[in-house]
Amino acid sequence: MFAKQYSHRLPADYDMGVIRERAARLGPLWDHAEGLLFKAFIAQERGQGPG
Questions:
Q1: Distance CA 17, CA 29 (A)
Q2: Are 19 and 43 in contact (CB under 8 A)?
């Protein structure tokens, strides 16, 4: 198993569309990684936490 997590605090008014676009653009680069069965890009937005 290979797992990696990064945590970045962004300004409250940061345009999350930039993050979504980047994940959509760069995600496919992992599509043919040998042995990779699952990938996820996860973001938590302010006021959108669990509970």
A1: 19
A2: yes
> How does pLDDT run across 9-32, given as a tens digit for each residue?
889 889 999 999 999 999 999 899
Compute the distance between CA of residue 13 and CA of residue 22 in angstroms, rounded to an integer. 18
In angstroms, how far is the first alpha carbon of the chain from the final one?
A: 29
Q: In this structure, what is the dihedral angle of CA atoms 45, 38, 33, 16, given to the nearest 10 degrees?
A: -10
As a whole number, mean pLDDT of residues 28-50 equals 83
Structure-block tokens of residue 10: 């962004």
pLDDT given for residue 43 in this prediction: 85
As a whole number of angstroms, the distance between CA 4 and CA 31 comes to 17
Residue 23, number of CB atoms within 10 A of its CB: 13
